[in-house]
Specification:
CATH architecture of one domain: 2-Layer Sandwich
Shape: elongated
Oligomer: single chain
Number of helices: 11
Low-confidence stretches: 1-39, 359-375
CATH class of one domain: Alpha Beta
Mean pLDDT: 77
Structural class: alpha+beta
Order of helices and strands: EEEEHEHEHEHEEHEHHEEHHEHEEHE
Strand order of the largest sheet: 1-2-3
Radius of gyration: 26 Å
Largest sheet: 3 strands, antiparallel
Strand content: 15-25%
Number of strands: 16
Length: about 375
């Protein structure tokens, strides 16, 4: 619906900008700016413009509706297969089967031990060691127990100023300088609190990642790493090119934010959480659309969610808003997206750029975004 067709303005008001906004970003890639209406004063001068917004109707995506946060895997051009990557990641996240106890053990012997203990390919980058003046017989003393392989491996290699990356389906023990030039691409879904927003504002999250995880490594600071927010099938994703160590930190940060967004729903194993519904309020100003949503939303959501469905959910119209009450976070996330898709959301004007920070490219920034989801 084009709301400008029925827009009536007094003679003292004139349109100074008018554009068409579609779901997603424009073809030019430039931020969307809201049209402005400027009123003429008696002296013929124009006062500050009043913002006229046009609603967009975002598509619904169910891709991010999981309580467990899972980064996505991409295939690299050099043949790193999904099976090899999955095996390495699974092993890194497991608790070490037996304690590690290295006493003055040569580095190359440590690598041999890791290869046998982990059951995945582990190689020592001899060329990088030579270029970095690292002796492959450097003695290593390190102990670890009751921790994940990822954490133990990081601590072991930190003790000799080395690190690791993944190359051609193998863990490569190498120097930090070499790892900085061997960037890995990974794709991350947004944490739940952001994923269910409509429209999505990724700029604060990009800023947080670039200023807390290896700040000097990002392209905005002159480094080789990069991060980009993209839209895919109605879902916002983060495409990140970074070292494996930085990816670990990014994944930990996003997993924490995801868990925090789900915390209000309690532990799924907690009987009390299963009996306590959560209420969300969503704006839907069109009366006909609001009535249709109240009548059909519960049935549509439950039919799509299956195991996460909530037959006891309630949908209620309150003034120009819709109250959704449910114990299922998946139900709330899908209901919020469907209400936004049917009722539309207004894009406010783009905020002024922060002169002290060069933000990464991403979807249109949105001012005054509610961090807990759509209103």
């Amino acid at each position: 619906m084009n709301h400008f067709n029925s827009l009536s303005l007094p003679e003292s008001v004139c349109i100074v900008w008018l554009g068409c906004i579609a779901a997603g970003t424009p073809a030019s890639g430039q931020p969307l700016e809201a049209p402005a209406v400027a009123a003429e004063t008696n002296e013929g001068q124009r006062a500050a413009p009043h913002v006229v917004t046009t609603p967009v109707y975002p598509q619904v995506s169910m891709a991010a509706f999981t309580r467990e946060y899972r980064p996505l895997r991409v295939l690299t051009a050099n043949g790193w297969t999904d099976e090899a990557a999955t095996a390495i990641e699974r092993k890194l996240d497991q608790v070490i089967a037996e304690p590690w106890d290295f006493g003055e053990c040569p580095l190359q012997d440590v690598v041999e031990h890791l290869r046998a203990a982990l059951g995945v390919p582990v190689v020592l980058d001899a060329k990088a060691c030579e270029a970095g003046n690292v002796d492959i017989d450097t003695p290593v003393s390190f102990q670890a127990r009751d921790t994940t392989t990822r954490f133990a491996l990081r601590g072991l290699l930190d003790s000799v100023d080395m690190t690791w990356t993944i190359v051609d389906g193998a863990i490569s023990v190498t120097t930090p300088d070499q790892a900085a030039g061997s960037l890995v691409i990974r794709v991350y879904p947004l944490p739940w609190g952001l994923a269910e927003q409509r429209p999505v504002d990724t700029q604060p999250l990009l800023h947080a990642i670039q200023t807390t995880v290896a700040p000097e490594s990002w392209d905005v600071a002159g480094g080789p790493a990069s991060i980009q927010a993209v839209e895919s099938g109605g879902e916002s994703l983060l495409v990140v090119s970074q070292t494996c160590a930085a990816h670990d930190a990014i994944a930990a940060l996003l997993r924490t934010l995801h868990a925090r967004a789900c915390a209000e729903f309690g532990d799924p194993a907690d009987p009390w959480a299963k009996r306590t519904p959560v209420i969300r309020i969503h704006r839907c100003t069109e009366e006909e659309a609001r009535a249709d949503v109240v009548r059909k939303l519960k049935e549509l959501c439950n039919a799509s969610l299956r195991d996460a469905a909530d037959p006891d959910a309630t949908i209620t119209a309150i003034g120009a808003s819709i109250a959704v009450q449910s114990r299922s976070p998946q139900f709330h996330a899908l209901a919020g997206q469907m209400i936004a898709a049917v009722g539309g959301v207004d894009l406010p004007p783009a905020p002024r750029a922060d002169p002290g920070f060069a933000p990464a490219a991403g979807p249109v920034p949105v001012a005054d975004q509610n961090p807990f989801g759509p209103e």
